[in-house]
Design brief:
181 residues; alpha+beta; seven-stranded antiparallel sheet
Length: 181
């Protein structure tokens, strides 16, 4: 299943890119369905940092998934490799509850569009519930698409909300900066 979203943030490219890369954990408090974002590891590299963030979600599960997915399973690891020169991040999400069953990856590209910064997110999500212990293959074939749709609906809006939240975060920082001056 494809994931795609585009957003515009009315702040300069350099400011948006740096805040997205470096301040993401501060934004979790403003994102519905996300309890927190924890930086597990950050490795500085010449081309840009490699960052591992753990997202902890708080979303209500659809009834059909409640017997398979427990609320504490709504965590995912975000492995991001930033390219500071080209202004993009390649990312891969891993769901600890289903490490071999969910594949999700993509790229966020940041560009100056003359009115601010355009962020284009593109990626893919694949879920394989076949041969999952305790889940018959017939059920897995029916539940798989539901689970895929659920995860896309969980991840995509939150990625879009990150952009909206980043807009508010940068707006507040701009106002605070003017108040200090």
């Amino acid at each position: 299943m494809r994931i795609h979203a585009e957003s515009r943030i009315h702040h300069p490219l350099e400011q948006v890119y740096a805040a997205y890369r470096d301040d993401l954990p501060k934004l979790a408090a403003y994102i519905p369905d996300v309890k927190e974002i924890v930086v597990k590891e950050r490795v500085e590299r010449p081309e840009g940092p490699k960052i591992w963030n753990r997202w902890i979600g708080t979303r209500e599960l659809p009834r059909v998934l409640r017997g398979i997915i427990r609320p504490e399973m709504l965590q995912w690891d975000d492995f991001a490799e930033w390219n500071d020169g080209a202004r993009y991040v390649d990312w891969r999400l891993s769901f600890p509850a289903f490490p071999d069953r969910v594949r999700c990856s993509g790229r966020n590209a940041f560009a100056d569009d003359g009115k601010g910064t355009r962020i284009t997110l593109s990626g893919t999500l694949e879920i394989d519930l076949r041969s999952l212990p305790g889940v018959p293959n017939l059920v897995a074939r029916k539940v798989g698409p539901i689970a895929e749709d659920f995860i896309v609906r969980l991840v995509t809006p939150n990625l879009e909300r990150v952009n909206m939240t980043l807009q508010r975060y940068l707006d507040e920082r701009s106002v605070q900066g003017r108040a200090i001056s």
